[in-house]
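INFO  loader      accepted 1 record
INFO  loader      residues=95
INFO  predictor   begin
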Amino acid sequence: MKITRAEVEHVAKLARLELSEPELDTFTAQMDSILAYVEKLNALDTDGIVPTSHAVPMENAFRPDQPKDSIGVEAALANAPQHTDSFFQVPKVIE
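INFO  predictor   done
INFO  writer      dumping tokens
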């Protein structure tokens, strides 16, 4: 699969990237190499191979949830730059 310079320019425009002429040439060649490799992979017979999300078996590394007491309002607001009563005060963003 050959990618054209115009397609690279189009993708750059969609991504809102401004590329110089040498960058366009470089990215066109690099993307063409990537697509050629993907075409090679598509030629492989993958019938009977179970899809996996990881190459090796994985387990959840998180600890189990344990309920604990809250830190309290005063501790939560201790490092807040601004607060009003028991609430964080933030700048207004909607007019």
